[in-house]
């Protein structure tokens, strides 16, 4: 059991008694909903909503006022702390504090807490409320999204789906290629040849400081390169099932390739201690020729590079083909966040009506990207922000989402990327210019809560990364691979694989 769950268990028993008592009152509310008594015309109550952390006060942010005008609901917003939000969340749930809506991130740990709360009876079953008051919610969210939030067949939360996109690839110094008369590599073999040329001919003039390829210690599976070996995501399809990278036969091929780069001096000798900042500094200072890079970091990195080397040019590599012809960039999917109603809520049906009103198509668009002509323009099918007002009034609009118009939000979302054209061009290359087939969604993105997987994923990932670094550096050889696999399986890997594939098998029927 995760520490946060233990804490919840310890603290919550007394609170759950209070919650359960409140729940009795809410059973009456649910009965009212079924009978239609909830439709009585009354003044709308002030709702209380607990939100994820953001740097500004929700109550004074322009989106709050807009939503009050459009939905008719005045809302008192509070937010969870930036650090250890689960601690405060556990206290709030155990105390029975009467929030009408609670929104958390959709991360694995928060997904585990959501499931725990539901199983312990602290959350309302939203199914009956959605049937009566949630037509916009049901129309906006796909059945797959809603199904992913069910616990034991009941829906206790409204997920906001993540906007799927390839986040990162390898960035290379185009001016170094030009100086050496080389083309942008398209395969892993060509990349190795380019790195060799970077090492031997030193186009940056770095001498012994020259670093052909720099990566960081907590990401030994390098974006783009891992995909060239069929390992684009943490779990990948293999013979009709899902397998974690370390149990995939391609794992050894990938590690052997990376070990070759390391032995030949093409991979940064300091990669096992590199942090993200070290890698970026090596690139922006002109020492490194290739690094993995997220499109969201392009403006700040290129500003730093231009400051140090005004004539420097860079480009993204395409999805490299590996020895077996595979290629791929991992793509996040699943939940960005989830909203639920605790049984301590004083106004559960009004909370659903409020969330439903936010998903009216016009209101949702106004919330997400503002007014055309004021906050954005629309031309040739593209939304472009008008600055600086878009940044002032809609930059944090995503924190008000409680479910999304899944058909249109990916297009609206692009206005947010166009805040800086360098940002947009980098995102556009990875997500529009490259062939669609190289973008590979995380197959576990929309999985339901999987207790074994959630319990073990963090420790197993750390174990795998640590061992992978040893293989890449040659500290360990594959002679101990079978022993490591047994250790991995015994530490929860085997149970996780079974659980994941029990679920995956059902989704394919």
Q: Can you characterise this structure?
A:
By secondary structure, the protein is of the alpha/beta class. Helix content is 47%, strand content 14%. It contains 19 helices and 17 strands. It has helices at 3-35, 62-71, 85-95, 108-119, 127-133, 135-140, 143-148, 174-180, 188-201, 250-263, 276-284, 298-308, 348-358, 361-369, 389-393, 409-417, 421-433, 451-473, 481-507, and strands spanning 47-51, 75-79, 101-105, 150-151, 154-155, 157-161, 168-173, 211-213, 235-238, 241-244, 288-294, 314-316, 329-331, 335-340, 376-379, 382-385, 439-441. It has a five-stranded mixed beta sheet with strand order 2-1-3-14-6. A four-stranded mixed beta sheet has the order 8-11-7-12. The chain has a two-stranded antiparallel ribbon with strand order 4-5. β1, α2 (62-71) and β2 form a beta-alpha-beta unit. Mean pLDDT is 90; it is low at 1-41. This is Extracellular solute-binding protein.
Low-confidence segments, given as residue ranges, are 1-41
Beta-strand level of the residues, as a percent range? 5-15%
Would you tell me the overall average pLDDT? 90
Helix content: 40-55%
- Bulk shape: globular
Main β-sheet: number of strands, strand sense, barrel status?
Answer: 5 strands, mixed
Q: How far apart, in Å, are the first and last alpha carbons? A: 31 Å
Structural class: alpha/beta
Rounded radius of gyration (Å): 25 Å
Q: What is the strand arrangement across the widest sheet?
A: 2-1-3-14-6
The number of strands is 17
Task: Please count the helical segments.
Answer: 19
Organism: Paenibacillus aurantius
Keywords: Cell membrane, Lipoprotein, Membrane, Palmitate, Signal
Protein name: Extracellular solute-binding protein
């Amino acid at each position: 059991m995760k520490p946060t769950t233990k804490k919840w268990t310890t603290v919550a028993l007394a609170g759950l008694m209070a919650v359960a008592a409140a729940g009795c009152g809410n059973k009456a509310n649910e009965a009212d909903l079924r009978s239609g008594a909830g439709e009585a015309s009354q003044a709308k109550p002030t709702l209380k909503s607990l939100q994820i952390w953001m740097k500004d006060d929700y109550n004074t942010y322009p989106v709050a006022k807009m939503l009050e005008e459009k939905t008719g609901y005045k809302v008192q917003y509070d937010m969870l702390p930036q650090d250890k939000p689960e601690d405060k969340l556990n206290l709030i749930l155990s105390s029975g504090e009467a929030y009408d809506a609670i929104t958390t991130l959709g991360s694995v740990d928060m997904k585990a807490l959501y499931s725990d709360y539901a199983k312990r009876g602290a959350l309302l079953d939203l199914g009956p409320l959605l049937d009566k008051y949630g037509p916009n919610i049901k129309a906006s969210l796909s059945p797959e999204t809603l199904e992913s939030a069910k616990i034991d067949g009941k829906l206790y939360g409204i997920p906001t789906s993540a906007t799927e996109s390839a986040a990162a690839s390898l960035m290379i110094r185009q001016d170094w290629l030009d100086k050496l008369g080389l083309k942008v590599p398209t395969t892993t073999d060509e990349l190795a040849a380019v790195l060799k040329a970077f090492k031997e001919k030193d186009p940056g003039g770095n001498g012994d400081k020259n670093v052909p390829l720099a990566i960081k210690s907590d990401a030994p599976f390098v974006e783009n390169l891992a995909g060239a070996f069929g390992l684009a995501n943490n779990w990948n399809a293999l013979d009709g099932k899902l397998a974690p990278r370390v149990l995939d036969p391609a794992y050894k091929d990938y590690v052997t390739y990376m070990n070759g780069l390391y032995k030949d001096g093409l991979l940064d000798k300091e990669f096992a201690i590199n942090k993200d900042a070290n890698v970026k500094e090596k690139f922006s200072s002109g020492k490194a020729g290739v690094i993995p890079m997220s499109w969201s970091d392009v403006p700040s990195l290129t500003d730093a590079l231009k400051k140090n080397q005004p004539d420097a040019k860079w480009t993204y590599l395409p999805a490299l083909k590996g020895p077996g012809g595979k290629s791929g960039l991992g793509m996040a999917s699943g939940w960005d966040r989830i909203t639920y109603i605790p049984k301590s809520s004083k106004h559960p049906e009004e909370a659903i009506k409020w969330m439903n009103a936010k998903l009216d198509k016009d209101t949702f668009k106004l919330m997400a990207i503002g007014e055309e002509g004021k906050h954005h323009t629309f031309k040739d099918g593209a939304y472009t922000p008008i600055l600086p007002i878009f940044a002032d009034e809609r930059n944090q609009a995503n924190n008000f989402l409680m479910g999304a118009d899944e058909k249109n939000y990916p297009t609206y979302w692009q206005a947010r990327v166009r805040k800086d054209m360098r940002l947009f061009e980098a995102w556009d290359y990875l997500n529009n210019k490259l062939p669609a087939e190289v973008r590979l969604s995380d197959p576990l993105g929309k999985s339901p809560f999987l207790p074994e997987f959630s319990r073990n994923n963090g420790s197993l990932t750390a174990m795998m990364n640590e061992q992978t670094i040893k293989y890449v550096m040659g500290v360990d050889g594959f002679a101990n691979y079978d022993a490591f696999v047994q250790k991995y399986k015994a530490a929860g890997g085997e149970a996780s694989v079974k659980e994941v594939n029990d679920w995956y098998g059902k989704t394919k029927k």
